[in-house]
Amino acid sequence: GQQVMQIPQYQHVQEGEDFTTYCNSSTTLSNIQWYKQRPGGHPVFLIQLAKSGEVKKQKRLTFQFGEAKKNSSLHITATQTTDVGTYFCAGLTRANNLFFGTGTRLTVIP
Amino acid sequence: DADVTQTPRNRITKTGKRIMLECSQTKGHDRMYWYRQDPGLGLRLIYYSFDVKDINKGEISDGYSVSRQAQAKFSLSLESAIPNQTALYFCATSDFGGWEGTDTQYFGPGTRLTVL
Lengths: 110, 116
Description:
Radius of gyration of chain B: 13 Å
Shape of chain A: globular
Number of strands of chain B: 11
Order of helices and strands of chain B: EEEEEEEEEEE
Helix content of chain B: under 10%
Oligomer: heterodimer
Strand content of chain A: over 45%
């Protein structure tokens, strides 16, 4: 079964509103990676977190890795139309297997 | 990522036909992967290869086979295509000790396969 669950599956927001997607693993992870896939495109790497409780920021994007290294979140502040796409987390297990979450498709309404 | 190319980009075929999807990379990475993407299911790993002599099954390898012809080339075959193999297929590469992190995936543009 799916080892990395991601919610929500879809999110519609008004431009300027915040957005968060959550990722949960059934097992402890070595690292968590986040990717963005624009409509019609391919997944593109955004960031990797490897330390317990780690928080990283990229402009309006904030990424967190849980203390137990089993969950992660991506938060976008004040969404813009350029944020549209599907956001995937991917967890690397200690057995060096990478499992992608099911993705959250973000729609931003102008 | 232009360093990872896939051919063909689109393919329509009929049930029972043999299909080969090809992937080439100029990133110099040892690790290569094949994923399929279906709506609502995310990316699922079909096969992966950590070097030329290493081939491993992923989550959903049934009905697929692969060949690692060189460090830069990794092909995916559907020996006898069936309609539920209709999907978007991505090749990816990674560098275990890459500067962006462990096993960061660099994806090709994808191949959209339709099996009628």
